[in-house]
Amino acid sequence: MTTVRQAIDDAHRHEWARVLAATVRVTRDLDLAEECVQDAYAAALAAWGRDGIPDRPAAWLTTAARHNALDVLRRAATLRAKLPLLIEPAPGPVPPEDPLRLVFLCCHPALSPEAQVALTLRVVGGVPTPDVAAAFLVTEPTMAARITRAKKKISAAGIPFRMPSPAELPARLDAVLTTIHLLFTTGHTAPSGTALTRVSCAERAIELARLLVTLLPGEREARGLLALMLAGHARRATRTDEAGRLLLLSEQDRSRWDAESIAEADSLVVSALRGGRPGRFTLQAAIAMLHASAPAYEETDWPQILLLYDELAKVWPSPVVALNRAVAVAMVDGPATALTAVTALEDDPRLSGYRYLPAIKADLLRRLERFAEAATAYEEALRLTDNEAERTFLTGRLTEVRR
């Protein structure tokens, strides 16, 4: 039997963005809408415990949040001024694309790219402010102030809650794709906490990408992004063991991967690769599919993956791409060649504080049996990691190389 707590957790995981988007339609104010939705979830705990779990939890929460918003507006003596706005959001079906409107609102070009991502993670993804701060390597008060400024800027500028026009889309789409991908990566590997993953964030990102593909079927990169996330999420059940210990790709039980998601990702990649030079999300998806379709780790097509990384580096010359390419280099040309490439990246300020750089370096040194240097690199990776599953894995490797 589903408990009230489970029902609320499920509603938070699957419906948060939809309820929030419906409330933004009433308030035209992100900050106020977020408060009203939080109050609705809090009220559900008592009401559902007393009256039973409603048949349609999302509708209950949407109605409660709307009522909260109207109460606030009345108390502020602005109801009369807001009446024209209140006509539109009368109780009824919420447009399915509303969560996507919310993402476009958060990713408006009036905001800096950093503010766009931070606001989307917090507002749409429901990621706690301390975790958003950790992702940006800033303090929690700094991030809270940044998010508040972004909300005020949206309100002060009167940025409308709507999808961009076809003429506006090309300039807006990349920021939205990038932000949805960051929301997914935050869920794929949580920046902090005891669990390796934060499934709600990953599923929310996939849902948003599905909406994007439905609304913009001609956008190949939207299909590439959805394929990339599906291929990664298909492995979620095997990325840790029953004790929560992180399992490497080579250790995972491929028979437990989600074959349906992998097949869907494969179809999306094939269609996204047609029609011209692929973009960065499509190329990443193609790499992910080579991993997902290999019958065994030893049968992975590393030379083809390396070629795809070469293409990816041309369209997206990111130091993170260069670092991931080094992993493929290690499999094709050996760890010594890869170590040279990784060492060259250590001077790049964009990777300072990026935990995977020392972690990859440590692994290459371990494979070269340079154990003392590997230990130093593992210690550095541990210093930068707040996720307990990753810390346990790195601690195990550190113990191994110190023997």
From TrEMBL:
<dbReference type="GO" id="GO:0003677">
    <property type="term" value="F:DNA binding"/>
</dbReference>
<dbReference type="InterPro" id="IPR013325">
    <property type="entry name" value="RNA_pol_sigma_r2"/>
</dbReference>
<dbReference type="InterPro" id="IPR013249">
    <property type="entry name" value="RNA_pol_sigma70_r4_t2"/>
</dbReference>
<protein>
    <submittedName>
        <fullName>RNA polymerase sigma-70 factor (ECF subfamily)</fullName>
    </submittedName>
</protein>
<dbReference type="InterPro" id="IPR007627">
    <property type="entry name" value="RNA_pol_sigma70_r2"/>
</dbReference>
<feature type="domain" description="RNA polymerase sigma factor 70 region 4 type 2">
    <location>
        <begin position="104"/>
        <end position="154"/>
    </location>
</feature>
<dbReference type="InterPro" id="IPR011990">
    <property type="entry name" value="TPR-like_helical_dom_sf"/>
</dbReference>
<keyword id="KW-0731">Sigma factor</keyword>
<dbReference type="Pfam" id="PF04542">
    <property type="entry name" value="Sigma70_r2"/>
</dbReference>
<comment type="similarity">
    <text>Belongs to the sigma-70 factor family. ECF subfamily.</text>
</comment>
<feature type="domain" description="DUF6596">
    <location>
        <begin position="172"/>
        <end position="272"/>
    </location>
</feature>
<dbReference type="GO" id="GO:0016987">
    <property type="term" value="F:sigma factor activity"/>
</dbReference>
<keyword id="KW-0804">Transcription</keyword>
<dbReference type="Pfam" id="PF20239">
    <property type="entry name" value="DUF6596"/>
</dbReference>
<keyword id="KW-0805">Transcription regulation</keyword>
<dbReference type="InterPro" id="IPR046531">
    <property type="entry name" value="DUF6596"/>
</dbReference>
<dbReference type="Pfam" id="PF08281">
    <property type="entry name" value="Sigma70_r4_2"/>
</dbReference>
<feature type="domain" description="RNA polymerase sigma-70 region 2">
    <location>
        <begin position="18"/>
        <end position="77"/>
    </location>
</feature>
<dbReference type="InterPro" id="IPR013324">
    <property type="entry name" value="RNA_pol_sigma_r3/r4-like"/>
</dbReference>
<dbReference type="GO" id="GO:0006352">
    <property type="term" value="P:DNA-templated transcription initiation"/>
</dbReference>
